[in-house]
Amino acid sequence: MTMSAKAIIVAILIAGTLSCIGCTSAPPTQPQSKPAATISKEPFGTKEGIQVDLYTLRNAKGLEARIINYGGIVVSLKVADRNGQFGDVVLGFDNLDGYLSPDFIKSNPYFGALIGRYGNRIGKSKFTLDGKVYTLAANNGPNHLHGGIKGFDKVVWEARPLQDEEPSLELHYLSKDGEEGYPGNLTVTAVYTLTNDNELKIEFTAVTDKDTVVNLTHHSYFNLAGKGDILGHEVMINANKFTPVDSTLIPTGELRAVAATPFDFTSPTAIGARINQDNEQLKFGKGYDHNWVINKPAGELGVMARVYEPTSGRVLEVLSAEPGLQFYSGNFLDGTLKGKGGWVYQFRNGFCMEPQHYPDSPNKPDFPSVVLKPGETYKNTIIYRFSTK
Length: 389
Ligand code: GAL
Hints:
The protein is mostly beta strands. The protein has helices spanning 3-15, 96-100, 102-107, 280-285, and strands at residues 38-47, 50-58, 64-68, 74-80, 86-88, 113-115, 121-122, 126-129, 132-135, 144-145, 158-162, 168-175, 186-194, 199-208, 212-213, 217-219, 234-237, 239-243, 256-257, 269-270, 289-294, 302-308, 314-320, 324-328, 337-338, 344-345, 352-356, 371-372, 378-388. The chain has a 9-stranded antiparallel β-sheet with strand order 11-12-13-14-29-23-22-17-20, with no helix packed on it. Residues 108-110, 120, 145, 249, 289, 326, 328, 332, 352, 354 line the site of beta-D-galactopyranose.
């Protein structure tokens, strides 16, 4: 090797950009006080012989997301607290084996994953479209949950890192006609971006070649303190109504007022403040596991929920144009899974905020429609915005 070739390699190693795909560096005249926005890639294991990669996205302010192309899973998300200390605010595993283990598949928490073709439940695993009855895979008692036995959370997506001032990862998946019982070849794209406003943004689009139903969402479990239970987190949800459920967590069809119930989060309230009240809906969910009807015109991007964690000062805002928000307080976590750093995930150690259409919409003609037809494009943008106070 010539001296000049060696010098180039050494320079690359020192810059630490060996696997950096599309790094955006500050102009050389500017002081390097802020880290540059970057995206890098490394192998994370194999699933059924297919390579799974881990992509590390970092924005210019230090916000860092590690995302794999298996299930589009957000493996870690490092966010600053009020003292500027970065900490991981999502539940998950250090390696692919954690996501493939029999215990994980059995308890099915969907840590950090993209959810599809239908987020949440479809009652009795059946729906009728254009006069035809479709029977879906039943994977939650009699019901169909989060796309079935092998939903979008359990497939390897094709990945493409995008070069821009903000790092993005574009994921593609073709869900074939008949997969898990759904009609139509559905071509899905999900783009993750870390914006310079300290947001993790997910932009979904999908097209079909036959009439079908679609409801895509994201399933990170947040814990803004990075430890313990989430009962002290203060939640605001911009909703005057929610959709009560039956004992199998299928909406009854009613839109019920939250006023004077433990479901009223119109003013910030600690998750734990009312979660153990004697209330039939809380019993059915083992806590909060319901869809809130967001107070804004469908199709208008806006703040659905805000969560504040007092010890760290971290604030999470959830934005989307979807009509509903599933707020799930981690009631099925039971201490069987050991995650990152040896943390054993106990009851209510994380919560999910899933912007989406209402559960069981294909069987509820009065709920906003989830039907997608050929020639139309499904769109859903979800933003998780972080700040401190
Ligand atoms: C949530 C759902 C819960 C539970 C959880 C996964 O989205 O509302 O009922 O299924 O996913 O464990």
